[in-house]
Amino acid sequence: MDADFAIVGGGIVGLSVAWGLLRAGQSVVVVDGADDALRASRGNFGLIWVQGKGLNAPHYARWSRRSAALWGDFAQELEDNTGLDLALRQEGGLDLHFSDGSLADCATRYAALRAELGGDYPFEVLTGAALMREEPGIGPKVAGAVLHPEDGHANPLMLLRALSEDVRRLGGRLETGRMVSQLLPPGEGFALGCADGTVFHAGRVVLAAGLGAAALGPQLGFAAPVTPERGQVLITEKLPPLIRRPSLIARQVGEGAVQIGATNERAGLDDRSTRKGMAQLAAEAVAAYPALAQAQLVRSWGALRVMSPDGLPIYQESEAVPGAFLITCHSGITLAAAHARLMPNWILGRDGAPDLEVFGEARFAV
Ligand SMILES: Cc1cc2nc3c(=O)[nH]c(=O)nc-3n(C[C@H](O)[C@H](O)[C@H](O)COP(=O)(O)OP(=O)(O)OC[C@H]3O[C@@H](n4cnc5c(N)ncnc54)[C@H](O)[C@@H]3O)c2cc1C
């Protein structure tokens, strides 16, 4: 047996879970695909974002908030162990609105969510002078913003690097450049057959292969109904301080570059950036923060989100093949702390496990 657990997929989700399982005393091998594989974890926006999550699904709002609350300690532990700076800033985030109607509608929906959550859901609506005080770089086209104090951002590439380094330090095995093509259910354990002929054996298996789960899932009895949604992102040159708090439109990172994004497009597996997508992002960013009109763009890319039919995570142990778990979500940065700190108890069936049944695949059968 190579390990107690084999994790298929070494993106943010697979590595967060691997890290948590190692800390829980399990041995782990992470089998990750080729360099040219689709990897949302290398192309995302880096937000730790609670607002907007679970407006029609309070359990998702609760789960996102739980993860956001764990992020500080999680980042600190990774930074202490690796010496890397995750650039975590969690001082609130803004959802900007360009019309009074859209702002009022949003506030009404948050108020309803707050009521569903028993009054415990912090947010503040900012307009006029109050908004200008909080975010002086905002332009006159912005009607107002919702400030959610639990939101923040981090450097997602540093998170990925810190997790890989710490997984290795904790004794985990990272097998990169290996595409799993066959997942054989347990005899003496699961056998993971790779395209290059390598086979890994493990007591249990976690399928955290992002979009790759759609093809592999059925071998373990999962529907794994995940599909791609493209997001394009722009990066400016380094600029003087302009944006205090991140928004869904832009965030300024420590060195001064502004990251602008991201589009939401159905484009199949095409992860290229397009002139139309970039123009749309740039126009919206300039409408929100007019000083960006003078900024030079230095980079752009596209990446594919891993979307379930309702946009919520899927956490499922296979009914057909016990010991096989499917873990996937479209908010892997936000949920990294929960996946690392809470998910292992659920997988191991230990005390204190979160109740994740609501995130199972049964909901798609209705
Ligand atoms: C433009 C954009 C912006 C985003 N912004 C945010 C944000 O601000 N905040 C947030 O929380 N989330 C954000 N996300 C989402 C976040 O990036 C994803 O939820 C997260 O990266 C998913 O991680 P993953 O590990 O499931 O998938 P991936 O990163 O796609 O990794 C999957 C891994 O599985 C491997 N794999 C696939 N098939 C196989 C196989 N057969 N054998 C072996 N390995 C395999 C691949 O090699 C890959 O490394 C964004 C995504 C995009 C695209």
How are the secondary structure elements laid out?
Elements: E1 3-8, H1 12-23, E2 28-31, E3 47-48, H2 58-82, E4 93-97, H3 100-116, E5 124-126, H4 128-134, E6 144-148, E7 152-153, H5 156-169, E8 173-175, E9 180-184, E10 190-194, E11 199-207, H6 213-216, E12 227-238, E13 250-252, E14 257-261, H7 275-288, E15 297-307, E16 314-317, E17 324-328, H8 336-341, H9 343-348
Parallel strand pairs: 1-2, 1-11, 2-8, 11-17
Antiparallel strand pairs: 3-7, 4-6, 5-6, 9-10, 10-11, 12-14, 12-15, 13-14, 16-17
Helix pairs in contact: 1-5, 2-5
The structure holds flavin-adenine dinucleotide.
Plain-language structure description:
This protein has 366 residues and is an alpha+beta fold. The protein has 3 domains: 3-50 and 157-226 and 310-365, FAD/NAD(P)-binding domain; 93-149, no CATH class; 227-307, D-Amino Acid Oxidase, subunit A, domain 2 (D-Amino Acid Oxidase, Chain A, domain 2, 2-Layer Sandwich), CATH 3.30.9. It has 9 helices and 17 strands. Strands 1, 2, 8, 9, 10, 11, 16 and 17 form an 8-stranded mixed β-sheet that branches. It has a 4-stranded antiparallel β-sheet with strand order 13-14-12-15, with helices on one face. Helix 1 packs parallel to helix 5 and helix 2 (58-82) packs across helix 5. It is globular and about 65 Å long. The chain starts with a strand and ends in an 18-residue tail after the last helix. The mean pLDDT is 95. The chain binds flavin-adenine dinucleotide. Flavin-adenine dinucleotide (FAD) is lined by residues 8-14, 31-33, 37-41, 43-47, 49, 179-180, 208-210, 212, 216, 231, 233, 261-262, 303-306, 328-334.
